[in-house]
Amino acid sequence: MNPSDPTHTIIQTQDGRLSIPARPFIPYIPGDGIGPEIWAAARSVMDQAVARAYGGERAIQWLQVQAGEAAFSQCGEWLPSTTLEAFKTYRIGIKGPLTTPVGGGIRSLNVALRKDLDLYVCLRPVRYFEGIIAPVREPQKVDITLFRENTEDLYAGIEFAANSPESAQFLELFSAHFPQMAARLRFTDDLGLSLKPVSRAGSERLVRAAMQYAVAHHKPFVTLVHKGNIMKFTEGAFRSWGYDLVEREFSDCAFTSRQSEALRRSAGEEAAAQAEQEARAAGKIIVNDVITDAAFQKVLLNPEAFSVIATTNLNGDYLSDALAAQIGGIGIAPGANINYNTGMAVFEATHGTAPGMAGKNLANPSSLILSGEMMLRYMGWTQAADILINALAAVIKTGRVTADLALDRSDAHPLGTHEFGQAVCAAMS
Ligand code: NAD
Questions:
Q1: How many CB atoms are closer than 10 A to CB 287?
Q2: Which residues, 6+ apart, have CB-to-CB distance to 249 below 8 Å?
Q3: Do residues 114 and 123 lie in contact, with contact meaning Cβ atoms separated by under 8 Å?
Q4: pLDDT tens digits, residue range 170-184?
Q5: Separation in Å, CA 129 to CA 258, 329, 422
Q6: Residue 103 — pLDDT band, cuts 50, 70, 90?
Q7: How far apart are CA 196 and CA 193, in angstroms?
Q8: CB 128 within 8 A of CB 144
Q9: CA-to-CA distance for 17 and 299, rounded, in angstroms?
Q10: What are the helix (H) ranges across 129-198?
Q11: C-alpha gyration radius of the chain
């Protein structure tokens, strides 16, 4: 294997699509804690699915790269530049969980990867697997794909620590230039500050990705989730820019609630209802918006009203974990961080390193396995992705699950990490 052989490197063609060779190099980070054992299980499942689907005509050539504790102990760096370069060169990669180094000045490795590769979409599909014990009565009604903006918002990390010289300087400038706004600060001693940037460009590229996904996957609804009733110039602007984008770029295949509202005001209730009915009959995507707190209620009470959600960074952070909990899948939820313009994507387990479980063959590898399924689908290796997800669903249904999913399940036959991976491989037909 020669990792500099360009015939095995994923490239982006002039029309922006990815060209995937039959034997692509894919860099991977096994991760810290339980990472190496869930990686071993996930890798064998992915390899088996590809072999089943393409009978040896396609195969992934895995390239191990370092990050986290393993990298730090080898070369003194948590995220070596060679690892970032590998993700840039090979475009698609996958990773296990990484320890967030504790101590001043060291940023989260996950956040660093997203920022440095400008992976502006955090993609979190949430669907129920039969057999999993869920806290709601009808978890099978949940089939929602969440697009969370990944580079802006309070997550941008523009913060001033209380009582720091930076914070004092910022407050001085703020008071000098915006005295009326500064007067709204009640306690100026021991005051931490954070800026919330939300841009038109950042909002548009996120909503465009969600719309393109909805079109490609024949999804009926796209919902913009925002807190624009309170934060008008950031969250509210996200909503307006999202609608502008949809009405400008997707007018042939989408109808927005904002258009419906405008019709209602100009031509009356009946005309608006009729226009929406016609749009549905024509198979158009209905794009609406919901305020964040209402969205948390509605996904619980009426989950079938949602299929794709596009939202700002912090909302998406909360909502993606809440949705995963709703279907009992917090430990198995997969995720991907993607830049649809460059094609770069990093697929990942969404849970942490679970250090207390490390090395005990107890951890559930499903999150990383399902991230692998997302990766295969992203590569266009749909047949392998289908085989993988069907096998995983079949094994979970029979109750052969790891200890975390066996709890409260009377039909469970608990398996170790390795044995669970083997059971999924064996279930592929
Ligand atoms: P954690 O996700 O590691 O653990 C939370 C709980 O979930 C624990 O009870 C753990 O045992 C359980 N758990 C997690 N993954 C599991 C699996 N695959 N199978 C069965 N049970 C599982 O979160 P934490 O304890 O807050 O964080 C530990 C470390 O992981 C920290 O350094 C944190 O920064 C890091 N972290 C990394 C990522 C990432 O790389 N994406 C995400 C979250 C946390």
A1: 29
A2: 208, 211
A3: no
A4: 999 999 999 999 999
A5: 35, 8, 19
A6: low
A7: 10
A8: no
A9: 34
A10: 165-177, 179-182
A11: 23
Distance of CA 327 to the CA centre of its chain: 16
The model's pLDDT over 115-129, given as tens digits with 9 standing for 90+, comes to: 889 999 999 999 999
The three-point CA angle 181-227-137 to 5° equals 150
Q: Give residue 97 CA to ligand 1 midpoint distance, Å.
A: 8
Confidence of residue 2 (pLDDT cuts 50, 70, 90): confident
Q: How far is 212 from 171, CA to CA, in rounded Å?
A: 42
CA distance 16 to 333: 29
**Does residue 288 contact residue 220 with C-beta atoms inside 8 Å?**
no
> What's the confidence (pLDDT) of residue 409?
86
Pairing mode of beta strands 285-291, 334-338: unpaired
**Interval 392-412 mean pLDDT:** 92
Catalytically active residues, by annotation: 155, 227, 293, 317
Backbone angles phi, psi at 62, to 5 degrees: -80, 135
**Beta partners for 126?**
144
Mean pLDDT, the chain, rounded, equals: 94
Strands 221-226 and 345-349 turn out to be unpaired
Instruction: Indicate the top mutation candidate among 32, 353, 369, 405 to test ligand 1's pocket, ranked by most ligand atoms within 8 A of CB.
Output: 353
3-state DSSP assignment of residue 121: strand
At 267-300, the pLDDT tens digits run 999 999 999 999 999 999 999 999 999 999 999 9
Q: Is the CB of 354 under 6 A from ligand 1?
A: yes
CA distance 151 to 328: 28
Cβ–ligand 1 contact at 352 (below 6 Å): yes
By most ligand atoms within 8 Å of CB, the mutation choice from 351, 402, 405 for ligand 1 is: 351
pLDDT at 330: 81
Give the model confidence (pLDDT) of 339-388 as tens digits: 999 999 999 999 999 999 999 999 999 999 999 999 999 999 999 999 99
d(CA 295, CA 184): 29
Determine how many CB atoms are found less than 10 A away from the CB of residue 312.
30
CB count within 10 Å of CB 195 equals: 13
What's the pLDDT tens digit per position in 34-48?
999 999 999 999 999
Amino acid at 267: A
Distances (CA, A) of 41 to 116, 165, 175, 409: 29, 50, 57, 23
Res 6: pLDDT: 79
Ligand 1 touching residue 353 (CB < 6 A): yes
